[in-house]
Amino acid sequence: MLDPGGGVRLLRGAGFCVAQYGCALHGSTGLKVFTMSREQVSISELLLSLDSSELQEAEQVRAAVNQQLSADRGGAVLSSLVEYYLDSSSSQVVLLLSSIREPHHKPLLEKLNESLNRPGSRLAALTLLGHLIRKQPPWVHHISRSALLPSLLRCLKTDSDVVVLITAVLVLITLLPMIPQAGKQHIYDFFDVFGRLASWSYRNPGHVPVVHLVHLHAGVYSLFHRLYGMFPCNFISYLRLHYSMKENLDTFQEIIKPMLEHVRVHPELVTGTQDYELDPSRWRCYEVHDIVIECSRVSLDPLESSCEEDVYSSSSSSSPRPPPLPSLLPLLDLSPSPHSSETLSSSGSELTVDPSAQSAALRYV
């Protein structure tokens, strides 16, 4: 804050002090004062200490950044935070960005969209978006009406980097129950994404490593359950039309048919209609967890339906539960290993899994 003499009064802490329009750090060379602009330069200097191992210092930096965020009118502070995450993958930035409130979400979504459209920052931007939506901030529903959603879908329909595709489809799977009303406008985009990734996981046009295909197939499998659980009438209609084509029959036999064998008949296939599924009013009484539970209730896969079993464990049922089916996908051992590779066994075959690739593919899962 400004003192009566027109100078800057520093707020001092243990080895650290912050001013409203600047900051000062106690280093080995003594007190170093930075005179900075109100937004760009000061936030850049503050970010240097954001991930400090000194808890008190890091806490004071977060408080200073939050103060600047609350006064940020042009989005410069938000932009600096996003750029810092793209360079550092800072968990502190995720915490700061997930705590913002409306209307500051607008410049954040614009910056994420800009970063997603730059090939060099696309993977990091998707990872950041995944971290943010998992925290379910109160502004998450605005994504359905922002340019960010079309950019995400375009990435899934055109990008050729398999790790980007894996990360992007996990973002979409997580996001769908939070923006169910987006189905009215983007339902065929969702289906196009599914069709492309299903074909990719079967044909492997990029000749990517097997471990990446396993992760991609896991993403396609989860997307199948999400789309079937939320939009069964439209999704079954799409599957019937798309996989009746001769060029898609192999993908249907190897990828889609096994997935269909792991779901129950959806009640909406009997009582619902394609139009009603896409009516935004259908979702007014649903919270995010309600939609996730509804999706899990039509699954015969014990892994996919575990959410339902946890929530409804106290409910009694006179009808016997179907016996558990073997998982459609092999399980990955994600425990630390001293070896440079891990072995994955499925149906008598062995796959060599590179832990670094595993980590990249499941970056925010």
From TrEMBL:
Record GO biological process: negative regulation of cell population proliferation; negative regulation of TOR signaling; regulation of cell cycle
Pfam family, one: Hamartin
GO terms for cellular component: TSC1-TSC2 complex
Protein name: TSC complex subunit 1a isoform X1
Domain of life of the source: Eukaryota
Bias type Low complexity, positions: 328-352
Chain segments carrying region Disordered: 311-365
Organism, as annotated: Lates japonicus (Japanese lates)
